Amino acid sequence: MINNFENEFFGIGIQNGKTPENLGVLWRSAQNLGASFIFTIGNRYAKQSSDTHNAVKSMPYFHYDNFDEFYKNLPKGARIVGVELTNDAEDLETFNHPRRCVYLLGAEDHGLSHKAIEKSHFLVKFKSQLSLNVSVAGSIVMYDRQLAKPRS
Description:
Number of domains: 1
Strand content: 15-25%
CATH superfamily: SPOUT methyltransferase, trefoil knot domain
Helix content: 25-40%
Strand order of the largest sheet: 3-2-1-6-4-7-5
Order of helices and strands: EHEHEHEEEHEH
Distance between the termini: 19 Å
Oligomer: single chain
Mean pLDDT: 84
Structural class: alpha/beta
Radius of gyration: 14 Å
Low-confidence stretches: 1-5, 46-53
Number of helices: 5
CATH topology: Alpha/beta knot
């Protein structure tokens, strides 16, 4: 029997994360919801007190000093899915997740950089008047991915 999803993977990370607690919670959710790897762009935190399952030791973790470094090292064939509350973003409820992608979230106070938004292959948003906590937003995206069949 051939597994049609054997080449599927996704990673999730935060650009310029604001607090180590948010990052730790996102990492724990990533481990529970099937992420292949986790990453940060910009700010880096050594130990996440809220990462009680020690996800950073259970899956690959990458750190990039800036967006250009991240973009240069994007896994081959992966699409960037930026999570941002903009008019151009697709509603998560109707979004078809790519089979191979990287979900990129920004900090609550500044969101994604202009360059990150410009270089994202897709932008998704939630039906919400205000931005959500970054770890909550990332968890919702990963859960939605589990519910939906990724696009080819």
